[in-house]
Amino acid sequence: SSGINAEYGAIFQDDIQALQSALESAEVNCKDCNGLTPLQLCSLVGTPESAQVLLDAGADADLETEEGWSVVQECVSSGNIPLAQKVLDARERQRGEKRAALINDLLLKLSDAPDFYVEMKWDFTSWVPLVARMCPSDTYKIYKSGPAVRIDSTLTGFDQSSWKRGNVTFLFLANESGCEIHDINHDNKTVSVERIDMTRPGDSLDALSLTNRLSTPLTSTRIKTDNVEFWREKAGVIGFRTDKTEEISGYQCAVFSTSGIEIITRERVEHLTPEQRAVIASNTSMFESMLSGSVVSQTTNHQEHDAALPYVVDETEGCAMQTCAMLEYFNAGNTECLRKRPKEQTDKVQKFKARVWLSHNHPLSLQEQLLPIIELMSTGNAHFSKLKDFITLQLPAGFPVNIEIPLYHMINARITFSNINS
After folding, report:
1. Angle, vertex CA 416, rays to CA 413 and CA 422, nearest 5
2. b vs e for 38-69, b when ≥16 Cβ sit within 10 Å of the residue's Cβ?
3. What burial class does residue 279 get, using C-beta atoms within 10 Å of its C-beta: 0-12 exposed, 13-18 middle, 19+ buried?
4. Which of 225, 227, 246 is closest to 235 using CA atoms?
5. For residue 164, what are the β-bridge partners?
6. Tens of pLDDT along 99-150?
7. Distance from CA of residue 63 to its chain's centroid?
8. Half-sphere exposure of 421 (CA within 13 A, CB side)
9. CB < 8 Å & 24+ apart, contacts of 284-290
10. Share of the chain residues as helix, strand and coil, in percent rounded to the nearest 5
11. Contacts 24+ apart (CB under 8 A), 210-213
């Protein structure tokens, strides 16, 4: 990585020839002394030509900083819209290729596993009475046959103010060149098909617009599991306590609790105009406020926006608008001096506990049968993504027949597997 570090001046000056020369002997995704990749540095400095060279060389446009900020978000923050669109298009192509490879690999893994049927019931609960009355439930019916998977559901999502209902089926079908995903809406009697060709994984992607990103807060959510611990729950009176066991779906399960998991949510608004902030504040529902209001700690870094600084920055002004020299960046480790606008960031930290019921004689395999299904659904479902994050922790031995995890600050989900091969 020393080659690219020695030539980082090329990015500050947008010198594409010097950068191309440095890339001949350096890793395009290496990190500098401040923990930034060359493309991440481009998003702060505002050098579009250098960014294009890096993208052409295979720079990962989906990498995030230690705080969880993407390259696209940093470009939006600075107002460098042309650079943000360029990186966004590259990122979506890369994501499409990764998703295509992941889905194809998962279906291949499932083809070797025994066929099965299982029902996955999701019960959403809350300790807040008003929220609890709004919480629904749903049962996903999962069919696996060879390299094909069918999943039926009646709950299609959550739009931050209400739950969305529908009668839908998802079909994942493998074929010689890749796979197909069929989204069947039984209510509307419509079918949409996404074909993933592994020989051309990015062909079906459409260009995405930055419009919504420019008018809404930038958000980053991280789950910290460095200090996670599992322990066996106890039953009985003091002096005669034993390991707790409960029957779930006909299986005797050991009951475990966990702690040490934190959800860190960050929000930035320096790219928003005063008018946009007023609209967002007026449109925030009471339900949204309740969902985002329960936190252990909250810190805000707020600096007033300079009235002389436009909210949208021309990409040609990137180098001219630098507020510190390259030497200050490297010698002082000061990344904030590169920003076109002062960062206005709010951090919220929520600590939570989870529970899991584990069976040692369950007929399904967590790794071979269940996990690939959950990973398939997590590619387009935030709830399944959070479930995947939990079960891929270092769980105690056994199959998780029942799991209780938080989804939002005031909403938990209880997931139960039942009716195996019924």
Report:
1. 150
2. bbbbbbbbbbbbbbbbbbebebbbeeebeeeb
3. middle
4. 246
5. 157
6. 888 888 888 888 889 999 999 999 988 777 776 677 778 899 999 999 899 9
7. 12
8. 8
9. 285/160, 285/161, 287/131, 287/134, 287/160, 287/161, 287/162, 288/160, 288/161, 290/128, 290/130, 290/131, 290/410
10. 30, 30, 35
11. 210/76, 210/81, 210/84, 210/85, 210/88, 213/72, 213/73, 213/76, 213/84
- In the structure encoding, which two tokens stand for residue 105, read together? 């690999």
Q: What is the DSSP letter of 161?
A: S
DSSP 265-330: EEEE-TTS-HHHHHHHHHH--HHHHHHHH--SEEEEE--PPPTTS-SSB-GGGTTTT--S-HHHHH
Note the pLDDT tens digit of each residue in 331-379. 767 778 788 788 899 998 888 889 999 999 999 999 999 999 999 888 7
The pLDDT tens digits for 30-52 are 888 888 999 999 998 888 899 99
Encoded amino acid at 204, one letter: S
User: Could you tell me the two tokens for 104?
Assistant: 């194809």
Task: Write phi, then psi, for 9 (nearest 5 degrees).
Answer: -60, -25
Listed in sequence order, the residues at least 6 apart from 121 whose beta carbon sits closer than 8 Å to its beta carbon are 137, 138, 139, 140, 415, 416, 417, 418
CA-to-CA distance for 19 and 135, rounded, in angstroms? 54
* Unique residue bearing structure tokens 């019916």: 141
Amino acid letter for position 5 = N
H or E segment to which residue 11 belongs: helix 9-13
Other beta carbons less than 10 A from residue 94's beta carbon: 19
Q: Hunting for tokens 């505002």 — which residue is that?
A: 46
209 burial via Cβ count (<10 Å: 0-12, 13-18, 19+) = exposed
